[in-house]
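[Target chain]
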Amino acid sequence: MDLFAFFGSLLWPIKWVIEAILVAFHEILTFFGMDADAGLTWVLSIVGLVLVVRAALIPVFVRQIKSQRRMMEVAPQLKKIQDKYKGKKDQFSREAMSRETMAMYKNAGTNPFSSCLPLLLQMPIFFGLFSVLRNAQLEGNAPGVGLLNAELSESFGTSSLFNIAPLHLAISTADGNTAVIVTAVIMVILMTGSQFITQLQIMSKNQSAEMKASPMYRQQRIMLYLLPLVFAFSGFTFPLGVMFYWLVSNFWTMGQQFLVIRNMPTPGSEAALAREARLAKRNQRKGIIEEAPESDSGTAVIEEPKNVQRDQPVSKNRAKKKQGKKK
C-alpha cells in the first residue's frame, strides 16, 4: 500500500477542514479582485489557514503557560529526587526514581511534554496541507476530499508565486529551479531566526533563578541550537506551500510569546521584574496627575508656594513694652 495514500486516509477529516478554510479565504480574496489562479492568492489563503488554526489553539497555549508555571514550582522537588538517586545505576533505583518523578508530576497537574503540545497538535495540519497540495499537483484536476473541487484543485496544484516559484515544489524536487531554491533558503533563514528569537527570549527573560538551575533549562539550551537543523531538513523536503504555513505560524508564536512574557511573565524572572518596574512607574505618574488640582479647562495646575512672612523672634523686654503700648 502507498505510504502517502495510507496517511492520506488517516488525515481525511483534517484535510476536509483544511480545504474548507483554504477555499473560504480563496473565495474572499477573489471577491476583492485578486487573481484566482495566482500563487499569491493561494499563499494568502494559507496565511488565513494559519490565523484560524492558531486562534483555535489559544486555549491550548494558555494551558501550556499554566503547565510551565507548575513545572517551575516543582523544579526544586525534581532536583531533590535527582540528588537522592544520584550515582545509583541499578534497575531498582531507576524504577523508583521514575515512579517518584511521575507521582510528583501527577500531584502538580503537569508533565514535561506540555510545552510541546501546541506543536504536536499542529503536526497533522502540516502533513494534511502537504497531502492536499501533493494530491492537487499529482492528480491534476482531481477534486479534493471536501470543498476543493476539480477546478480549484488544478488552480492550487499549478499555482506559482509570482509565476516563477511553484508552491508544490521543494528544494529536493526543484530540478534546478533557482527561484524555488532561493525562496526556500530565505524562508528557512526566517524560520530559524524567528524560532531562535522565540526560544531565546523565553530562556533569557522568562526564567526564574530556580528554573535556570534545573535540568530542564539545560534541555532547552540544547533545543535552542538543535531546532535550526530541523528547519534545514524541512526546507529541503517540504514544498513551498507548507513552508509558508510554518513560517507564518512561527511569526505568530514569536509575537504571542512576546506579549505573554511582557504581560504575564514567570514570577521571579527578569521579565517579571521589568513588568513590576513599568507598573510602578505608571502608578507614580498616575498619582502625580491625580494629586495636581485641575483648572476649569480640565488641565492640571500646579500652584506656586505663597510667600509667608516669618515672625521675627522678640526678646522678653521688647514684648513687655509692646503689651504696655497696647494698653
In short: The chain has one domain: 3-87+99-276. Residues 295-305 have pLDDT under 50 and may be disordered.
